[in-house]
What does this fold into?
Amino acid sequence: GWAGHMLAVDKHIREFSGFDPRALPDEVLQSSEPAVLRGVAARWPMVQAGQQSAQAAVAYLRGFERKDAQPVVAMVGPPDINGRFFYNATLDEFNFRRENVPLGVALNTLLKYAKEPTPPAIYIGSTTIDTWLPGFRNDNDFALGDREALASIWIGNRTRIAAHQDVPDNLACVVAGRRRVTLFPPQQLSNLYIGPLDFTPAGQAISLVDFDAPDYDRFPRFEEALRHAQVAELGPGDAVFIPSMWWHHMEALETFNVLVNYWWRQTPAWMDTPMNALMLALMTVRDLPAEQRAVWEDVFRHYVFAPDEATADHIPADALRALGPIDEARARAMRARLLQRLNH
It folds into this structure.
């Protein structure tokens, strides 16, 4: 049985239909709640090719292939992982390997295995569309206003990508095959049993729970997480908006699946990911004596989590430096100073 079949998730992600991909409303794209946009990309040529056949989808994609392109990175796992890209039993290695292959070869390999009952798991993740498939977005694209979005393509067979969260907002659109997406609010962190932060299958820390067969003896709080879960099944042309930091488990349901996604942040490009601050805090704050750690909790609250007018109104505005509004130049100076201190 594939993931999600066992999970009793009652709540469905809220749905909208009838949206124009060239005029998506800000109230959806700026929401802190997820949304499914049914049929939003139904008219894309890629979606129509995918509905003909996997062969037609591959032919359409290969029409944009650059002859001089770098290889893509494919994650390849043995048939017995059942599409679940994960760790080994001791969490010190992964249950798959990475291979560099030309995109066209990867696509043809997926077609070759599509007829086999137990193929290896193959996943070409996070591949920048404009680099590998220039011209694709001329006819297959969303207009996202002035958002500086990174557009990527994800291609594979029956893969299961463990629940993880991303800092950017995410608009993910199924263009071939079907996917089941299971979402949890960011606040479910403590109920999802997240693995190592700095050794991860694909960059983001993941839930260690197997959604196909949750082990409630090992992971009892996962039952509480499920009470907050939202689920949707997406077909060709359907998209889901996943707000920043919402946990998402992505399961591909066909022998050939393609997803296109857009990531953007509602903050300027010079703002580094808060994950950098988390790593520094683990290194410098977490293991302080309890009284000192409590002091720093108060310092962070004062300067970072709950600053107000009174925080720095005793300092002249042009002397505020790091306590004032930060722009690109100030951020660059602060980063240079921080690097200097870290490299001492």
Remarks:
- The first strand starts at residue 15 and ends at 17.
- The mean pLDDT is 96.
- The CA atoms of residues 34 and 242 lie 5 Å apart.
- DSSP finds ten helices and 14 strands in the chain.
